[in-house]
Design goal:
Helix 1 packs across helix 2, helix 2 packs across helix 5 and helix 4 runs antiparallel to helix 5. The chain is an alpha+beta fold. The chain folds into 2 domains: 106 residues, Sandwich (Immunoglobulin-like); 116 residues, no CATH class. Strands 3, 5, 6, 9, 10 and 11 form a 6-stranded mixed β-sheet that branches. The chain starts with a helix and ends in a 10-residue tail after the last strand.
């Protein structure tokens, strides 16, 4: 296999791995865990962490064990409100309860208490741990699909440009231009459009806030802008600036997706969007 083909394979494998990491660390990936009820058996749960603002969110778990019952406890996040208790009701092969919809960027935290046989189990199991669910507005497919596709392409081209600069001198100039162009379109045009639809705020990174998704996109873009400038100005060692830009992008996109993302400040007078920690470990009321 030619060197160029090998480098494309390596770049594609790295991009797929990065995309999978972003997916698993993103806010839409459900909370999953096996729940053990002693001798009664094990139930594998998958609880939502993201939902549209257009309807209540259903929290459900399989009910394969005889006599299973339980209660959902939820409250707005982050607040010191008391948890609201909602009985889990029989929904065929599931036990389910609903959490009322919140405005865009609104969050709730919740946990379950489930009984099967003589066992009463908390989900999540750790005391004080909750599942944080964020609501978002609907994003048109004509915006969301190109955003995801172009960002994936930018990551692929950037990885390939860095490999070319390191191992295939002469083949990285066009790739650098294409990386900067796709990152600009996907991250600085389609990204804010997507976020505007979802949360009502197009950009919540620097200088307006500390949203790490916006900021890591900005850091990656600055790296590739510097690489492009190095090529245009014919700086000595420009190829190593390209390598550095690729390494910077990989590092930036290793940051979990939507960490420190937009969320409503329920203490504010008008529920303004604030940038607060999205972690789910709070003391129970």
């Amino acid at each position: 296999m030619r060197r160029s083909a090998v480098l494309w394979v390596v770049a594609l494998a790295g991009t797929v791995a990065a995309a999978a990491w972003q997916r698993r660390t993103g806010p839409s990936f459900p909370f999953r865990a096996p729940v053990r009820f002693g001798g009664a058996g094990v139930v594998r749960v998958s609880l939502p962490r993201s939902h549209l603002t257009t309807a209540a969110a259903t929290v459900a778990l399989p009910a394969p064990l005889p006599g299973m019952s339980g209660t959902l406890f939820w409250r707005r996040y982050p607040t010191g409100e008391r948890f609201t208790a909602v009985p889990l009701r029989d929904a065929g092969a599931r036990l389910a309860a609903a959490v009322p919809a919140e405005p865009p960027a609104g969050k709730v935290e919740y946990y379950l208490m489930v009984t099967a046989g003589a066992a009463r189990v908390r989900v999540p199991a750790s005391p004080g741990e909750t599942v944080v669910l964020r609501f978002h507005g609907p994003v048109p497919a004509v915006v969301l699909i190109p955003h995801v596709a172009v960002m994936f392409l930018a990551m692929l081209l950037g990885a390939r440009a860095g490999l070319a600069a390191a191992f295939e001198p002469g083949g990285y100039r066009r790739l650098t231009v294409l990386t900067l162009a796709t990152l600009t379109l996907g991250g600085l045009v389609l990204g804010p459009l997507t976020q505007g639809y979802a949360f009502g705020a197009a950009w919540t990174g620097v200088p307006f806030g500390w949203d790490l998704t916006d900021n890591k996109t900005l850091v990656a873009w600055i790296g590739w802008a510097a690489a492009w400038l190095a090529l245009v100005r014919r700086w000595r060692g420009a190829r190593w600036v390209v390598v550095a830009a690729a390494a910077l992008m990989i590092t930036a996109f290793a940051v979990p997706h939507s960490l420190h993302g937009s969320q409503l400040d329920y203490a504010g007078s008008r529920g303004a969007t604030a940038l607060l920690d999205g972690g789910g470990r709070l003391a129970e009321a």
